[in-house]
Amino acid sequence: MISSDTIVSKQTMELPLFAILQRTPRVAVTLAFALFLFTIVPALYSLLANPILPLSISSSETDRSHMHFSHLNISSTQIHSPVNGPIPAPHDHTPSRHRKSSFHQIPTPENGPIPSPTIHTPSRQRSPSSHQILSPKSSPITAPPHWMSSPAQSPSPVNAPIPAPLNQTSLRHRNSSSDDHSSPVNTSPSRMRNRDDEQRCDLFTGEWVPNEEAPYYTNTTCWAIHEHQNCMKYGRPDTGFLRWRWKPDGCDLPIIDPQEFLEMVRGKAMGFVGDSISRNQVQSLLCLLSRVEYPEDISPSPNTDFKVWNYTSYNFTLHAMWSPFLVKTTKPDPTDPKSKFFSLYLDEYDTAWTSQLDKLDYLVISSGHWFYRPVIFYENKKISGCQYCALPNTTELPLDYGYRKALRISLKAILENFNGLAFLRSFSPQHFEGGAWNEGGDCVRTRPYRRNETIPEGSDLQVHDIQLEEFRAAEEEGRKKKGLRLKLMDMTQAMLLRPDGHPGRYGHLQNAGVTLRNDCIHWCLPGPIDTWNDILLQMMKTEN
């Protein structure tokens, strides 16, 4: 017989756990206490031992996060260094040189305007060779061609339509924006070096590298281009010579910012003294500055030997003074058929330009090409010799005699009468190949030399050496004079590498019935000579 206790026990075992706990409170309390000990107590102990602090993010972590996301989000607007590619415009403005307009188009005689090229990454590969510059053998020393005999008048705004200058956005904005968008770690050289780097950098030793952003004006947007340098007008078929820029070895040379240039010379005056190559540089500067403002011609007379322009918004005057020999000179008598020699007074100033020195704040002086002509030298009012004259009872003197003395007295005039920043621009080489200028010589190359492909030789090298020697002597003397700063703009090496930049046969109409000499002395506009003004501004900034 089964007892009642056994029946109750069996029934209890068959009940669910919750019912058992209800019928046995002591067991329920015991289980609850055990659960509290093994769960709640350890949690409280952990909380007391390690209190929860407010959430915070360190500034370094914030910076890293910001830089990380900035790097991810700026791929379309990042401003690359020149090593990685050209500098595109930021979204909030469009510099004039990036605007798609006729300003960037180089018209060709047959096909019309060529649209602005696509973005190109300039090459920065340097030749492992030495810094020595190489050159073809120079041609015999002969008188320069007929188109250098006298200055011809540049086209006037009155005679040709002048397009309105584009609204210029300073390139300085591009440089400042690059700081905001560049990668946090960047070992590439920036487009604008700091001031110390600029002062240490040798601007005159380097290579020409591709620049697909060029040119910055055309023969249709600038009225100042002389006919003999208007290569595109007269049918030059290639445009590759336009798309290079000078890259010094130790730094990057910025393209001239015309607005920055005009601000720097506000209220000042600048003069250029020399021959038709000097005039070539002046016309380049007029074209580069025309993107901001066209000047007013305020020349005191119709004489094209001495031109003066005024940029009214900046109160800046620009003087172009013709003096191919730099010293007092008399021309051959046109009424005397036997008179074919220039007379140079090697111990007398050319007062046509030296009398203007007190009006100038900046001066660029240059010469050289005219000293290949037959000339007679005078010293102390007497004939001291001649060059290429073959006159009886007259001492034949070498090239270095007359040029050295003329340059020396011209630098003396600057030392005695000028209190500003003066530049001696060195000799601009010629590139006749296949003969001299009067023997069918031509310049048909379409790309620059590398510096290991050519060296200066002969008379061009001799003229350059004279300039260096006379400059050093004048510089030493100039240190004694307060206020005068004399600097050398040594463009010879850079221009020696540009046989492709001359007009050649494209400085005049192509007429099969007429034989005209090729011009391998002057420079096409636009063209490599624009770099001279890039360097001019950079040297002015360094000095200021």
TrEMBL record:
Family: Belongs to the PC-esterase family. TBL subfamily.
Name this protein carries in UniProt: Protein trichome birefringence-like 21
Record's subcellular location: Membrane
UniProt keywords, alphabetically: Membrane, Signal-anchor, Transmembrane, Transmembrane helix
Keyword Nucleotidyltransferase: no
Domain of life, per lineage: Eukaryota
Domain Trichome birefringence-like N-terminal span(s) in chain numbering: 200-252
Annotated segments matching region Disordered: 79-198
Membrane topology: Single-pass membrane protein
Pfam families cross-referenced by the UniProt entry: PC-Esterase, PMR5N
The Trichome birefringence-like C-terminal domain, residue ranges: 253-539
Composition skew (Polar residues), residue ranges: 118-141
Transmembrane residue ranges: 27-48
Principal place of residence: membrane
Biological source species: Camelina sativa
